[in-house]
């Protein structure tokens, strides 16, 4: 704890506090003008409807499958076993005791509700958030590997490696991600899945083409960062490693890359935050990530104002957590 | 130990050509300390870097411990493992502690066990008088301390030859002594050393032979007594009159 910094908290000039007030006024002003405008167009805010899209209490109904008579209802450990017999068949159902609708001796036919109970279920927004997280994490993971190898290939003296890397980087950086997603899904996806079908192998679901599009897109940017990171390390480091008899791979692994990666952590974080946000484009190839899930909820709930704000905040939670994590990494790898 | 015959090196950029080495021949015997002197731009750094293949000589031959290092079939990493190098700007690994700097190459290149490398590393740090700093990072050391760690790092590979490329030129004057002391001890232990330096005192006291270079060529070779008291060439006399 640095005690010398405490008095300085109170030493700020009054002008400083004035501008803090201005900031608060700006935030309040935007919020209230938004609210006021919504009132003008008769928009009814219904925030209470939002939580059900995260988790909801679902009513589960247990229905009979045969025609017959309820022979017995036995209570056992807070569960009830209902035995139904009729026409030489018999069935038994184990149900929670909370809401048993029938009694022993009742006649039933298929579709009659025997009992109901409530159960917590994950809502569509939560599923979308989870899918966005999953897609992003996998794409970041592969993006790092692709970027690392392409970045090293980019500064190789071998023309096959170097030119392949340059071609890949320029193609990816020079075309829109949206177009790349279409190419992965409609062109490469069709080709790959048709070849797999001919071979009698399982089809690859759209999710993986989406992940591939994001990973290769990110990989190109990471590659340029890795290249810049490596080139920013003083050449004396390579010479020192070489003079100790290290091979190229050893000097990269133990000397150059650890220093380069630490240096490019901040731009890498920015790139991965972009990737999380870019994953919102995957909705167009039928991947129900957060943005697509939000659109679907809006078509049923007709509450676009609340839902788009919620959607934005959920993305913010993901990106902010990532940003915090990278800052933690930066502190941890700091050389003191 | 080192046998250099007629090496030349020209640095070419698109507009200029600089002849760094012209037909240089030199010999260093086992256990000998050779100090290379010369004005700046005389090619002495290029010469010592050629011995480690950090610069590649255009022509001629360099044989170290019986291995021709300019032969394309030679595994240069094997040769470098036997030749220690100390740089003007230390080039310690800033992301590794002092001890890790010393033990990394023995572990990675020599495949020594971690315990073995650590034991040897600690002994070397004690030898260069910096044992108490084993677990700090290089940035926290003074220049003289960093250069002593760099010497320990090179010695950890148990080299047959040590090359020093202006090891004290980047140091504050009060730290030159501590580095030179370590080098003198090494020389006394019989290490074969090639030293590019401006330290005349060191050359006079420790060198078995002095090589004087100018404009990429060897001008004069001789014992320190001969070199400092009775030089033959006019260029050597001029150099000595300028610095002494």
Labels describing this entry:
A: alpha+beta; 4-stranded antiparallel β-sheet; 3-stranded antiparallel β-sheet; 14% strand; B: 244 residues; 9 helices; 25% strand
Order of helices and strands of chain B: EEEHEEHEHHHEHEHEEHH
Percentage of β-strand residues of chain A:
5-15%
> How are strands sequenced across the largest beta sheet of chain B?
6-7-8-3-9-10
Give the percentage of residues in beta strands of chain B: 25-35%
E-strand count of chain A:
7
Number of helices of chain A: 10
Provide the helix percentage of chain B: 25-40%
What value does the Rg of chain B take, in angstroms? Answer: 18 Å
Number of strands of chain B: 10
| Helix/strand class of chain B | alpha/beta
Q: Main sheet of chain A?
A: 4 strands, antiparallel
Distance between the termini of chain A: 18 Å
Q: Which consecutive residue ranges of chain B, at least 5 long each, have pLDDT under 50?
A: none
Taken from the alpha-carbon principal axes, the silhouette of chain B is globular
Order of strands, main sheet of chain A, comes to 4-3-2-6
Largest sheet of chain B: 6 strands, mixed
| Mean pLDDT value of chain A | 90
Rounded average pLDDT of chain B: 94
* Radius of gyration from the alpha-carbon trace of chain A, in angstroms: 30 Å
Count interface residues per chain for the largest interface. A-B, 20 and 28 residues
What does this structure look like?
- The complex is a heterodimer of chains A (336) and B (244).
- Chain A has 336 residues and is α+β, with helices and mostly antiparallel strands.
- Chain A is 62% helix and 14% strand.
- In chain A, strands 4-3-2-6 form a 4-stranded antiparallel β-sheet, with no helix packed on it.
- Chain A is extended and about 90 Å long.
- The mean pLDDT of chain A is 90.
- Helices cover 38% and strands 25% of the residues of chain B.
- In chain B, a hairpin with a 2-residue loop joins strand 4 and strand 5.
């Amino acid at each position: 704890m640095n005690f010398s910094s405490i008095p300085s908290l109170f030493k700020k000039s009054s002008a400083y506090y004035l501008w803090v007030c201005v900031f608060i006024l700006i935030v309040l002003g935007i919020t209230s003008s938004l609210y006021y405008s919504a009132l003008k167009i008769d928009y009814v805010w219904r925030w209470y409807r939002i939580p059900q899209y995260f988790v909801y209490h679902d009513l589960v109904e247990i229905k009979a499958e045969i025609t017959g008579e309820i022979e017995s209802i036995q209570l056992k450990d807070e569960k009830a076993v209902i035995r139904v017999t009729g026409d030489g068949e018999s069935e038994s159902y184990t149900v929670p005791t909370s809401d048993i609708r029938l009694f022993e001796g009742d006649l039933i036919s298929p579709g009659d509700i025997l009992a109901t109970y409530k159960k917590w279920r994950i809502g569509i927004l939560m599923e979308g958030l989870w899918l966005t997280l999953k897609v992003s994490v996998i794409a970041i993971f592969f993006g790092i590997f692709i970027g690392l190898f392409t970045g090293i290939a980019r500064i190789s003296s071998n023309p096959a490696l170097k030119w392949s890397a340059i071609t890949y980087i320029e193609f990816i950086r020079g075309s829109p991600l949206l177009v790349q997603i279409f190419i992965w899904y409609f062109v490469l996806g069709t080709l790959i899945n048709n070849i797999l079908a001919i071979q009698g192998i399982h089809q690859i679901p759209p999710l993986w083409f989406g992940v591939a599009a994001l990973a290769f897109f990110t990989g190109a940017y990471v590659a340029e960062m890795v290249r810049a990171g490596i080139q920013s390390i003083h050449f004396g480091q390579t010479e020192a490693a070489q003079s100790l008899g290290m091979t190229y791979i050893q000097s990269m692994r133990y000397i150059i890359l650890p220093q380069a990666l630490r240096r490019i952590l901040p731009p890498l974080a920015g790139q991965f935050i972009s990737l999380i946000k870019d994953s919102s484009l995957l909705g167009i190839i039928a991947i129900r990530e957060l943005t697509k899930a939000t659109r679907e909820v809006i078509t049923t709930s007709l509450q676009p104002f609340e839902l788009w704000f919620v959607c934005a905040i959920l993305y913010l939670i993901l990106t902010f957590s990532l940003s915090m994590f990278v800052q933690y990494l930066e502190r941890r790898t700091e050389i003191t | 130990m080192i046998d250099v015959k007629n090496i030349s090196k020209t640095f070419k950029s698109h507009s200029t050509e600089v002849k760094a080495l012209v037909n240089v021949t030199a010999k260093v015997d086992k256990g000998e300390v050779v100090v290379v002197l010369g004005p700046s731009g005389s090619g002495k750094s290029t010469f010592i870097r050629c011995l480690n293949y950090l610069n590649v000589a255009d022509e001629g031959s360099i044989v170290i411990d019986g291995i021709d290092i300019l032969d394309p079939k030679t595994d240069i990493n094997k040769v470098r493992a036997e030749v220690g190098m100390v740089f003007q700007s230390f080039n310690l690994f800033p992301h590794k502690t002092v001890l890790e700097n010393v033990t990394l190459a023995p572990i990675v290149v020599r495949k020594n066990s971690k315990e073995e490398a650590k034991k040897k590393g600690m002994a070397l740090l004690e030898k260069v008088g910096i044992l108490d700093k084993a677990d700090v990072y290089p940035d926290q050391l003074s220049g003289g301390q960093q250069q002593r760690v760099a010497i320990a790092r090179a010695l950890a590979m148990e080299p047959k030859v040590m090359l020093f490329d202006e090891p004290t030129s980047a140091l504050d004057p009060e730290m030159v002594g501590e580095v030179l002391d370590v080098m003198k001890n090494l020389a006394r232990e019989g290490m074969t050393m090639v030293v590019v330096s401006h330290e005349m005192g060191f050359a006079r006291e420790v060198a078995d032979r002095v090589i004087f270079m100018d404009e990429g060529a060897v001008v004069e070779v001789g014992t320190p007594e001969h070199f400092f008291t009775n030089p033959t060439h006019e260029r050597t006399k001029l150099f000595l009159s300028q610095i002494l």
